Amino acid sequence: MTVTAATGSTLPQLAERSWERLGQESVQIFEGRTWTAAELGARSRRFAAGLLAAGLRPGDRVVVCMANCPEVGVAYHGIWWAGGVTTPVLFLLSDAEIAHILRDSEAAFVITTPEFLPKIQNAAAGIPTVRGIIVAGEGSGALDFAELEAGDEAPQVSRVPSDLAGLLYTGGTTGRSKGVMLTHDAMSAAAWAMVHNSDEDDDLQVALLPLPLSHVYGLTVSVTAVHATTPRTGVLMRWFDPVGWLQLAERHRAQLGAVVPSMLQLVMAQPMEDYDLSSLRRIASGGAPLPAQVAADFVKRLPQVEVYEGYGCSELAGGITAGKPGRPVPVGSVGVPMPNIEMKIVRPDGTPVDPGEDGEICARGPMMMSAYWNATDETAHAIQDGWFHTGDIGHQDAEGNLFVVDRIKDLIIRDGFNVYPRDVEEAMLTHPDVALCAVVGRPDPRRGEEVVAFVQLGPGATVTTEELIEHGKARLAAVKYPRDVRIVEQIPLTSVGKLDRKTLRRKLS
């Protein structure tokens, strides 16, 4: 696959070339309908005209909080064509969390789908900057998406590559959600790196897309196509469900898939062998650590599939490292730095670690954020001497493969020893009755902290907490194994499918 230049053009300029280049090629399938690049491009330009007529001004932030549908990509490119800034927001957030983003970003418009219109109307109530709510579908008290794109196409509003293109809000797992400022250049560079990381002779062209597009993942996917000369068809799911995933993979002969680990585990709980998945070749996992046992079990059931991990964050527009297709990586590795990414791992004093030594992961590149929105102190803490400090602990081997150990703030210190929750979770997941596991630290007057494992069992499981403690004891060092195991009906996940440790810590007593 060949790629265009990474920087030097705005996203609308890149998209215009892409729409002309790909033309009548099929690029998206959704609920039985196929869309070409030319059709989606024309829709985006018409929607831009509707936004401008509704009063959008250059630099205005537009929140996109939608279920997956073609209108998400149309909205993104329409906003950029009209000179605006996209702010994707996951529909799983609470009213209060959405209200915080609307208020903090000073959003001018919000685009949503009917399922979430009441939530958006409630969140936007009393926020003076919001001049309109747009709904893609039926909904009262809102502007109609279809009507906004019913007129003529708009001319492109002039912007420069250094202008703000995206304002992405962090998940808030370690504090208040912050706005990540990404320029046209930064988002273009991130998408270019994703394309360039693929095999140039890649002939796998049908990808199953279950992840939310109203997220950094979807935003990057929406830009990736502007750098590819070979078309790839995305089979879009409105939202993920494991049976639907299997059905679509079979029906459309999907070759590629992008998931978070919890999705893979839910798919594996289904009778996968009842579906023809022989076309499937690659699964990319990201967003959270992929347990080695889960990856091994998936490949055992589908031997022709290569499962590889990536690692990244919103502050670098998605990707930092990835497993390159066809390049084997050690078990547990999330690959090597992506093109145009520099990475280093440092000790608390800022000095570089040795190969195999844990430290904080730092990265920089043309896709790095400009700053946090209206957060000077947080920006100064996160970006030091041009390097973004991720807050994650990891190490590299001699070949440069990265191993992410855990979040610094999730580290458990028991009897003065570091215990990484991921190590404990991996060990507990080797028990056949364990479907999900999440580990947190509980304050302890003698030990400093005690290791607590929350466990979600699989269907029909009968294992006891005592047996699970013994299972951990047999596989972990004495300082690491959990003395406190709690079986729960369901492990809470964040809106992006990560283990929700904040919620679990609140359950401790």
UniProtKB/TrEMBL annotation:
Coiled-coil annotated residue ranges, if any: none
Domain AMP-dependent synthetase/ligase: 17-373
PROSITE patterns documented for this protein: AMP_BINDING (PS00455)
Signal peptide: none
Domain AMP-binding enzyme C-terminal: 424-498
GO terms of molecular function: CoA-ligase activity
Classification via InterPro entries: AMP-bd_C (IPR025110), AMP-bd_C_sf (IPR045851), AMP-binding_CS (IPR020845), AMP-dep_synth/lig_dom (IPR000873), ANL_N_sf (IPR042099)
Keyword terms: Ligase
PANTHER family: LONG-CHAIN-FATTY-ACID--COA LIGASE
Name by which UniProt lists this protein: Acyl-CoA synthetase (AMP-forming)/AMP-acid ligase II
Organism: Cryptosporangium arvum DSM 44712
